[in-house]
TrEMBL record, chain A:
Annotated family: Belongs to the bacterial solute-binding protein 5 family.
Protein name: ABC transporter substrate-binding protein
Phylogenetic lineage: Bacteria, Pseudomonadati, Pseudomonadota, Alphaproteobacteria, Rhodobacterales
InterPro entries named among the record's database cross-references: Peptide/Ni-bd, SBP_5, SBP_5_dom, TAT_signal, TAT_signal_bac_arc
Domain Solute-binding protein family per the UniProt entry, residue ranges: 80-425
A GO cellular component entry from the record: ATP-binding cassette (ABC) transporter complex
UniProtKB/TrEMBL annotation, chain B:
Residue intervals of the ABC transmembrane type-1 domain: 112-317
Alphabetized InterPro entries for the sequence: BPD_transp_1_N (IPR045621), MetI-like (IPR000515), MetI-like_sf (IPR035906)
Protein name in UniProt: ABC transporter permease
CDD domains the record matches: TM_PBP2 (cd06261)
Source organism of the structure: Shimia litoralis
Membrane topology type: Multi-pass membrane protein
Leader sequence segment: none
Family: Belongs to the binding-protein-dependent transport system permease family.
PANTHER family reported in the protein's UniProt record: DIPEPTIDE TRANSPORT SYSTEM PERMEASE PROTEIN DPPB-RELATED
Keyword Hydrolase tagged: no
Subcellular location: Cell membrane
Length: 514, 332
């Protein structure tokens, strides 16, 4: 039997694997049958089966995780696999992509799946008036052509080697063409589970489809029931009393109680979710590279992981690329607290003293204000005076983030490097929260995007992470783990996905009843 | 009898005025909170253009006075408007959800039913228990039983609701798995399953409301025990139990009914914390969620329901105490 210790795995940085905190035996073979009852947070009364609006776990697990399929999917180990697409290929410039669709797939209402459905489903995101979160992805497609009933060709405005990855986004679900309204109203997809009942913000029940293209290797439960429990304590109680078999988002404060319970076990994975302290790099004093470097050495990252995350995380290295990313440079030299280096860079900047305001609120992340105060204490010994400004949580994202010179923030991370960088680090994009505009970085971003050679891409992404580590204007002290729990009735595979909570929200497909 | 009808009409008219004032107060209060729906729903993604476009879609770009009167015009015609969350969602997706939940009324109706069910179950337990305990405490006043009942009920009313809820969960759901800790009710359940699911929150609420009713019953009865007609009854040789139930209780009904009505109103309006703790999908939880995102139409509707519950139950209490008192029933 293989045993993996959580700490050991974190240290090696090879954390794209499962962290079996209780030291559970990792080998077990899945078995069919049973009903999965999961208590999940992130449900709203405004939820629906429209993938364009999905933003939180409950609907992601219900839609892309069980009832609907995308063209591609990210496997638990982070590799890209086909879901409704069987295979795909690109021209050398990564501009034209041909997707071969799976044959013999039907929607839950009996309609056969084909090229028309793909085109109609993608067009939903660019339709007039629709404000889809996946619009940037789909609007990069200049032309969609149906070649045969089971082959589609996409032409992109510019080469993008990540294109198949982007199509695994949980917003881009496949709907039956011509019946989209109905499919949104009743939840008609091609997934392993067909909807039995759905009350927005309350409950979703779905039944396993009898014969499914995924065969018997996935989707072991006869039935699944997702119950909306937004309150942390209520979710914990429900697991302890056996009313549900699995819950997401464990409160670190009460985690010890769950650990002590012999009937439950905790799953913990380090993914791409990270907490940040972005500085506006075009405004003084943060436009001075030496000031930024002094600040990078003035923070004690390990202390933040220990005290704010209570050990449930990993120190960051000022790059947003995390262990769940393909080209994560985990072996770069780690930035550590070093008062002498901080003082050195202060001197380089011609300063003997530095006074800066750091705006923080727990709206950014739980414990942001405490984190800012810890930073204040460690930076003081390097002659940096951080004035922690406690901002109100209401309106934080409108009034503080992107506006104040230095503040606290968070990102849940993205599946690919390009996606993350072009969301928050490309010059001029609206969410570039550090006003980052670095010529070499920008050049690498564009060349890596169209590079199909994985080795070359890896080198380019490595250099970009290196640039952010040494020069970047965002301090990323920590990556926060996804912590969830199941009871002993549930069997889980060796590798748990770390892109999203609950095994990439695919527990209905991957877990089973013991 | 005509005078009672007149009283009812007068009180109902006053109630409408009260509701109007309540709606203004709530509207102003929600508008005074920092941040509006557009900013809160967008969170980190609140770019100025996105905020502007949501405000435009929902009419939030108009002044508060205009918005209030638009809402009022709809409300007096029985249209409580559309929930911001749903309206925003529809404009987001470019199509309706098809769930029929977009109107405030459609969203509140099933939740209100659940809240009323919980209040009903609680009342069925709490009212008989409180009155029985009150009568017994009056009967055995200053005995060990009386003191123990008083201490127990007073300490339960003095504890915060969530604390009582967690104590009950600990003993009745975690250590002895008798009742479910999560009150998941849905339409497929039989009546008995539903009652079972609702029992823990109902017990919590019972602990909260019993003390008030029980002590009022006790005090009202003890107050009467000194009156001459009770002494007469005793001298006739009636048993203490009979004296209290037959002679004292009917005359003590008015204050008791008043307190019961107030507590029933509390069962509808004060369940917010209990609903959240037990994950019960009632109106209280909807109310909390809506305040969080400043969904003004839903907040308004919830508050009006709460206010109406108070007004109607108070009115019922007054009518009942008139009816229970012959002197008020037949004024000279």
């Amino acid at each position: 039997m293989t045993r993996i210790s959580r700490r050991g795995l974190l240290k090696t940085g090879a954390a794209a694997g499962v962290l079996a905190a209780t030291g559970m035996p990792l080998m077990a073979s899945p078995k069919k049958g049973g009903r999965l009852r999961a208590g999940l947070s992130g449900a709203n009364t405004s939820d629906s089966w429209d993938g364009r609006t999905h933003s939180d776990l409950f609907m992601i697990a219900s839609a892309s995780g069980s009832v609907f399929d995308c063209l591609t999917a990210t496997a638990a180990d982070g590799s890209l696999v086909g879901e409704l697409a069987a295979s795909w290929e690109a021209t050398a410039d990564a501009k034209t992509w041909t997707f071969n669709l799976r044959e013999g797939v039907t929607f839950h209402n009996g309609k056969a799946f084909g090229a028309d459905d793909v085109i109609a489903s993608l067009q939903m995101h660019t339709a007039e008036g629709a404000k889809s979160a996946a619009k940037p992805i789909v609007s990069a497609i200049t032309d969609m052509k149906k070649i045969t009933d089971h082959q589609v060709q996409f032409t992109l405005a510019a080469g993008n080697a990540d294109f198949p990855y982007l199509l695994s986004d949980y917003h881009i679900l496949m709907y039956p063409a011509g019946q989209i309204e109905e499919a949104i109203a009743n939840g008609i997809g091609t997934g392993l589970y067909a909807v039995e009942s759905f009350e927005p913000g309350v409950r979703m029940v779905a039944k396993r489809v009898d014969s499914h293209y995924k065969g018997d290797s996935e989707g072991f439960f006869d039935e699944i029931e997702y119950i909306a429990i937004n309150d942390n304590t209520a979710r914990m109680n429900a697991l302890l009393t056996g009313q549900v078999d699995a819950i997401n988002r464990i409160d670190f404060k009460t985690e010890a109680l769950l650990k002590a319970n012999p009937n439950t076990r905790i799953q913990e994975v380090t993914g791409n979710q990270h907490y940040t302290l972005p500085m506006l790099s075009q405004t003084a004093p943060f436009n001075d590279l030496n000031v930024r470097r002094a600040l990078k050495y003035g923070i004690n990252r390990q202390e933040l992981v220990d005290k704010i995350l209570q050990g449930h995380g990993q120190v960051g290295n000022d790059t947003p690329i995390g262990p769940a990313n393909q080209y994560y440079a985990g072996d770069m030299e780690q930035l550590e607290f070093d008062a002498d280096k901080a003082k050195f860079y202060m001197k380089e900047a011609g300063l003997t003293e530095l006074n800066v305001d750091l705006s923080a609120s727990n709206a950014a992340f739980e414990g942001a204000v405490d984190a800012a105060q810890l930073y204040q204490a460690s930076a003081k010994s390097a002659g940096i005076n951080i004035n922690v400004v406690q901002e109100p949580a209401d309106g934080y994202w409108s009034n503080v983030w992107l506006k104040k010179g230095w503040c606290a923030s968070y990102w849940s991370g993205r599946a690919t490097e390009d996606w993350m960088f072009s969301t928050a680090y490309e010059a001029g994009v609206p969410w570039n929260d550090s006003q980052w505009d670095h010529p070499r970085f920008q050049e690498l971003l564009y060349s890596a995007r169209a590079e199909l050679d994985s080795n070359k891409r890896g080198e380019q992404y490595r250099e970009m992470q290196e640039i952010l580590r040494t020069d970047g204007a965002v301090i990323i002290p920590m990556f926060a783990n996804y912590v969830q729990a199941v009871n002993n009735k549930i069997g889980t595979p060796d590798t748990i996905g770390n892109l999203w909570q609950m095994d990439n929200a695919r527990m209905a497909e991957r877990w089973w009843m013991v | 009898m005509a005078s009672i009808l007149l009283i009812i009409a007068q009180r109902l008219a006053l109630g409408l005025v009260t509701l109007f004032v309540v709606s203004i107060v709530i509207f102003t209060a929600v508008n005074l909170l920092p941040g509006d729906f557009a900013q809160l729903i967008l969170g980190q993604g609140a770019t100025p253009e996105a905020v502007e476009s949501i405000r435009r879609d929902l009419g939030l770009d108009q002044g508060p006075v205009v918005r209030y009167f638009q809402w009022l015009a709809g409300a007096v015609q029985g249209d409580l408007g559309n929930s911001f969350a749903q309206a925003n969602f529809a404009s987001f997706a470019g199509s309706d959800t098809g769930s029929g939940l977009s109107s405030v009324a459609g969203q509140i109706a099933p939740r209100f039913e659940n809240t009323m069910f919980l209040a009903g179950v609680t009342a069925m337990i709490a009212v008989p228990v409180a009155i029985t305990l009150g009568v017994l405490a009056a009967l055995f006043r200053n005995s060990v039983f009386d003191r123990a009942t008083n201490i127990l009920t007073l300490s339960s009313i003095s504890s915060p609701e969530f604390f009582l809820a967690y104590i009950l969960i600990l003993y009745l759901a975690v250590q002895n798995q008798i009742l479910p800790s999560l009150s998941l009710v849905n339409d497929d359940m039989t009546f008995l399953e539903r009652v079972r699911m609702t029992l823990l929150p109902a017990l919590t609420l019972t602990l909260v409301v019993t003390a008030h009713m029980m002590r009022m019953t006790r005090a009202a009865i003890i107050n009467l025990l000194a009156s001459p007609y009770i002494e007469m009854a005793r001298l006739k040789g009636l048993s203490p139990m009979r004296v209290i139930v037959k002679h004292a209780l009917p005359n003590a009904l008015a204050p008791i009914i008043n307190v019961i009505a107030l507590n029933l109103a509390y069962l509808i309006t004060g369940v917010v914390v209990v609903e959240v703790v037990f994950g019960y999908t009632g109106i209280g939880q909807l109310f909390v969620d809506s305040v969080k995102i400043r969904d003004i139409p839903v907040v308004q509707a919830c508050c009006l329901i709460f206010a109406a519950a108070y007004i109607l139950l108070n009115l019922t209490a007054d009518i009942m105490s008139i009816l229970s008192n012959p002197r008020l029933r037949h004024p000279k």
